[in-house]
Amino acid sequence: MALIEITLPKTIAKALRLPASSPRRQQLKVLKKLLKKARFTEFGQHYRFDEILLSRHPGKKFQQLVPAHDYSSIYKMWWHKTLEGKRDVCWPGRIKYYALSSGTSEAASKYIPVTEDLLAGNRVVMIKQLFSLRHYDDIPFSNLGKGWLMLGGSTQLQQSKGYYAGDLSGITAKKVPFWFTPFYKPGKKIAKMSDWNDKLDEIVEQAHNWDISFVVGVPAWIQMCMEKIIERYKLKTIHDIWPNLSFFVHGGVSFEPYKKGFEKLLAKPLTYIETYLASEGFIAYQDRQNARGMKLSINDHIFFEFVPFDDENFDAEGNMVANPKTYMIHEVEEGRDYAILISTSAGAWRYMIGDTVRFSDVDRCEIIITGRTKHFLSLVGEHLSVDNMNRALQLASEELNVSIPEYTVAGIPSGTFFAHHWYVATDDQVDPQQLREKIDKHLKELNDDYAVERKSALKEVYLDVLTEDKFMEFLKSKGKVGGQHKFPRVLKGNMLRDWEQFLNPGIKAG
């Protein structure tokens, strides 16, 4: 990998009939590399990878011959064989590691294959992100060599017959390169601890020994960690103990709901860097200061396709249809929501990861995460995305000057019609009725479908204000504490019934 990418000036590229920087060409190069590596696997033989490689249009041929998969279909047909120890199923060799992922709403764990090739590709993207900091203004580069507190899952992995399983963050931390060890905190001994509360207590006790410049993790758990440190050492802000703290690398959820409460813990501003590191691979990262979106990793180890997130390609429950319409990177449009299909160096082929994204800048291949295919509300055609919810809540909280770090929404019956029930977390004083009205008002302004349905079948909006601890207690009750676990923004099915019973323990689950 070149540290400095050389791009031809557009005029010269045009004269040579070559694009200055072609995302399509980069993606086809990645696809061919993946196909060549996996062509002798069982999957590659079944779906005729050699034929695809010989095609004049390998991207289109790949879409014609290989079906799109969700977890259930690829696991049932292929991945279950790798758990049984079979080699060369979807990727060469035996799968030794699996990232356990349950998303944020499903109870059963998914076993996502993790290979050395995938981890190597992830590391390349991480290094690229690090080098992208040279484009940032007023970056204290001396801080880059100080401590990095990475608050992820336990590196104590579950051992089974022939493989290990655990959080991707735990697998990644377990394989930290030797040159990064001096900077890596909390260190391998603490990172190995499986009990989240014990791990957090040990981090708090060791905090005064570290000079931390970077904190990396999910906002809710990083905030909790800093609050405990401030309380333990009777500090005003986290900078009283870590004066060189300059960066917060976050991902997984929108940071906006946490920002107000987070910044109360600081003495000076941080540089926020958003990443998109999923169990299936390092998908995108923010490579420009104050950029609205994240740059897709299009020339590394992932081939991307995009499925319009609409009624033609998904049913009412967010399930993808059998043969969805798919687009490559050069065919997408700005301002339209897509579900992502990825093919990776771990044997995921045309695999839907469940997130929805929108291109904020097509030329730069920059995206924002708008939600998940199953985390949206459309009881009566309101088509309400998590992005809509985040924005409405942000506007309402700013107007009322309150911090709302967590929330979730459920669609429920209301007489013969329907309603939305909001549950928001804040430790500030707020009038629930006033907050409800402001959220409803902003959603009408943000989403025309919602505005229409609020006049017809979506008859009511309810809102309950809870403490932030209540949300955390529920996650603990589900065994989803620390690491990469996030609270689901939309509750449906069993998770909704569990939540209702948690809030009202005297009521039997239906």
Automatic annotation (TrEMBL):
<dbReference type="InterPro" id="IPR055378">
    <property type="entry name" value="GH3_C"/>
</dbReference>
<protein>
    <submittedName>
        <fullName>GH3 auxin-responsive promoter</fullName>
    </submittedName>
</protein>
<dbReference type="Pfam" id="PF23572">
    <property type="entry name" value="GH3_C"/>
</dbReference>
<feature type="domain" description="GH3 C-terminal">
    <location>
        <begin position="388"/>
        <end position="492"/>
    </location>
</feature>
<dbReference type="GO" id="GO:0005737">
    <property type="term" value="C:cytoplasm"/>
</dbReference>
<dbReference type="Pfam" id="PF23571">
    <property type="entry name" value="GH3_M"/>
</dbReference>
<dbReference type="Pfam" id="PF03321">
    <property type="entry name" value="GH3"/>
</dbReference>
<dbReference type="GO" id="GO:0016881">
    <property type="term" value="F:acid-amino acid ligase activity"/>
</dbReference>
<dbReference type="InterPro" id="IPR004993">
    <property type="entry name" value="GH3"/>
</dbReference>
<feature type="domain" description="GH3 middle">
    <location>
        <begin position="299"/>
        <end position="361"/>
    </location>
</feature>
<dbReference type="InterPro" id="IPR055377">
    <property type="entry name" value="GH3_M"/>
</dbReference>
